[in-house]
Specification:
Blueprint: H1 12-30, E1 46-52, H2 56-72, E2 76-82, H3 88-97, E3 104-108, H4 136-140, E4 143-144, E5 147-148, E6 151-152, E7 154-155, E8 158-163, H5 164-169, H6 181-194, E9 198-201, H7 209-219, H8 237-251, H9 264-270, E10 274-280, H10 283-288, E11 294-297, E12 310-312, E13 315-318, H11 326-338, H12 341-345, E14 350-351, H13 354-357, H14 360-363, H15 366-380, E15 384-386, H16 394-408, H17 414-430
Parallel strand pairs: 1-2, 1-3, 9-10, 12-15
Antiparallel strand pairs: 3-13, 4-5, 6-13, 7-14, 8-10, 8-11
């Protein structure tokens, strides 16, 4: 089931200008050491300042791509600057409102609308036929209000990861992970009864509950927001049923502890103490370094899933308005996204470029066998749910994450909590 595309709203420019007035002067001091736009360098070389938020395996893969670009180009050189993940978008917003933005920057598709009026429409600077170089469904996520605002690098959906060693310990078939709610309940109950391991966590970080909640809401036939993103739609029977599911995991079925300490679940999974969890493409590199056998399958295991959906997002490359090197930045963005083999093989993400996605090198790799073939199938089948892009996504992410966290911890009733979250989201969107 294809999800509706999120379009820019008429008020986005007013919001951005208002925020720029408040943040611009103060922001200049805050980003002074981060490096701004550098124009022509020595010998006629254009040096681009490129901001990313990638660390770990993602950071190493992006470093490889940038190094390859620099080796193959004389007239353009890219200086990659990694900003802290938790501060990235605030720092980027400050730099773009303060006139000290980089030439090129990474944007999740769900964050683009916050920056629509400070990003350069790039259609006129793209190579001929550029749109045909990318998976169409991913390409469409970078169009806002009729403008092409970024070039897609990947899509990174969620899957169900499971520990095959724990399955064997519980007497389960390690090659038959659960694919429905009934199968999940049977497997998790067996693991709980037959081992001392935790059975299942729907969010191993225990702070991003909203991601898969949105996908599972869509999978039940419900909606998360209304058509124009001005009102919450998840306070219905579907949302209540899912909230009850989150409650029962830790408070009724004992599949996990009623403890929402950040990152507790991923630490447990990596140490071999958690049997199943929902996580994204990036988990491939993490798990390859562990000393247990793991598998991954489609995460359509919540109750009432009639149209299977999983959470997804995309990394994209966009060009700020203030860049004086826009054409060079677009050239670099196209090259990086269309030569992104390592982004799949090393970082584990599903490349957006058709040539890379269909290459023998990618499809013959271990990551293709372990995860990307399954993610690619979900993408081809229209089973990816992108989170809505609004002027400030915290208007909905924070109330939902907070409510489900309290529900999971047994501190708040499922129906009361999710309905209050829906009220809060509506108030935020309309306020």
């Amino acid at each position: 089931m294809a999800r509706k595309k999120q379009a820019a709203t008429p008020s986005s420019r007013r919001t951005f200008i208002k925020a720029a007035g408040a943040a611009g002067i103060a922001g200049l001091a805050g980003c002074a050491d981060d490096g701004g736009t550098t124009g022509g360098g020595s010998g006629g070389t254009t040096t681009l300042q490129y901001w990313t938020l990638f660390a770990g395996g993602d950071g190493e893969a992006m470093k490889t791509l940038v190094d390859q670009f620099n080796e193959e180009h004389d007239s353009i050189q890219v200086e990659r600057q990694r900003q802290p993940f938790d501060e990235y978008y605030d720092k980027l917003f400050t730099s773009m409102t303060g006139g000290d933005a980089p030439d090129l920057a990474v944007f999740h598709t769900t964050e683009i609308q916050r920056f629509t009026d400070a990003l350069t429409p790039i259609s006129g600077m793209l190579s001929d036929g550029a749109a045909d170089e990318y998976v169409d469904s991913i390409w469409q996520e970078t169009e806002f209000g009729g403008d092409q605002l970024a070039v897609p690098l990947d899509t990174h959906p969620n899957g169900l990861y499971y520990n095959k060693d724990i399955f064997e310990e519980a007497g389960l078939d390690p090659e038959s992970p659960p694919t429905t709610f009934d199968e999940l309940k049977s497997a998790a109950d067996t693991i709980t009864a037959e081992t001392d391991k935790q059975a299942f966590s729907p969010d191993p970080y225990l702070r991003f509950f909203v991601r898969q909640f949105i996908a599972w809401q869509h999978g039940r036939g419900g909606e998360f927001l209304n058509d124009d993103n001005t009102e919450a739609a998840f306070g219905d029977d579907h949302g209540v049923a899912l909230a009850q599911f989150y409650h029962d995991i830790a408070n009724e079925w004992d599949w996990d502890r009623a403890d929402t300490t950040a990152d507790r679940g991923t630490k447990a999974f990596r140490s071999g103490d958690l049997a199943m969890t929902i996580n994204g493409t990036w988990y491939y590199g993490v798990l390859e370094a562990q000393d247990f056998e793991y598998g991954m399958t489609k995460p359509f295991v919540a109750p009432g899933q009639s149209a299977p959906q999983t959470w997804a997002n995309s990394h994209t490359l966009g060009v700020p308005n203030s860049s004086s090197n826009q054409e060079a930045a677009v050239e670099a963005a196209e090259w990086i996204t269309q030569n992104s083999l390592e982004w799949g093989t090393d970082a584990g993400h599903l490349p957006a470029a058709q040539s890379v996605l269909g290459s023998d090198e990618l499809r013959g790799s271990n990551v293709w066998e372990m995860t990307l073939s399954t993610f690619s199938e979900m993408a081809e089948n229209g089973e990816l749910s992108y989170m809505p892009s609004t002027e400030n996504n915290e208007n909905y992410t924070r109330p939902v994450n907070n409510a489900i966290s309290q529900i999971y911890a047994g501190q708040l009733g499922a129906e009361e909590g999710i309905k209050q979250a829906a009220t809060d989201v509506t108030n935020n969107l309309q306020g």
